[in-house]
Design brief:
163 residues, single chain, three-stranded antiparallel beta sheet, alpha+beta, four-stranded mixed beta sheet, 22% helix, 2 domains, GMP Synthetase, Chain A, domain 3
Length: 163
């Protein structure tokens, strides 16, 4: 199993080029097929030239959840495409006054009506467990996932939070 690796090179201030490495080939993104990504902090700290680390975290969880839902549906030979994912990080301060990601909210939308998919209830009960990134992040940050179909019908909602 490949272990994801990255190399970051500072370009200016808080802007970094993120290069993806392919461990079994010893290649960086310049030698492979994936171009480097520019990440940057938002102004006034950075220049806003790319996604922030927080956005990359949310994107990683949303992408992994999308992959997991697609994988689980395809196990039953279902065609839910095109999928759409929206993610949001809840930002706040911890007890020490430091800014932290307090929770991540992911909404996945199927590209078809729920009625056109078989085994959907079983898939919705299981797919989050396949998400390596989401399950890893959830060990330290609450991750709330909801799913709706192409008609906007809610199929899965996160557990209600205590108020």
């Amino acid at each position: 199993m490949d272990e994801p690796q990255v190399v970051l090179e500072q370009q200016e201030d808080y802007r970094f080029a993120i290069h993806w490495t392919t461990p079994h080939r010893g290649q960086t993104s310049e030698g492979g097929l994936t171009p480097p990504l520019i990440a940057d902090e938002s102004p006034p700290l950075g220049g806003g030239a790319g996604p922030t680390p927080g956005q990359l975290l949310v994107a990683a969880v949303a992408n992994c959840m999308s992959d997991s839902l697609l994988f689980a549906l395809r196990k039953f030979k279902q065609r839910p495409e095109p999928l759409r994912a929206e993610g949001r990080a809840e930002i706040g301060r911890n007890d020490a006054g430091r800014i932290r990601v307090q929770a991540i909210h992911i909404t996945l939308q199927l590209g078809v009506p729920a009625a056109s998919l078989e085994h959907l209830e079983r898939v919705l009960d299981q797919f989050e467990g396949f998400c390596t990134v989401g399950q890893s992040v959830a060990q330290g940050i609450p991750v709330h996932v909801s799913v709706k179909d192409s008609l906007g019908a809610a199929l899965k909602a996160p557990p209600q939070l205590a108020v």
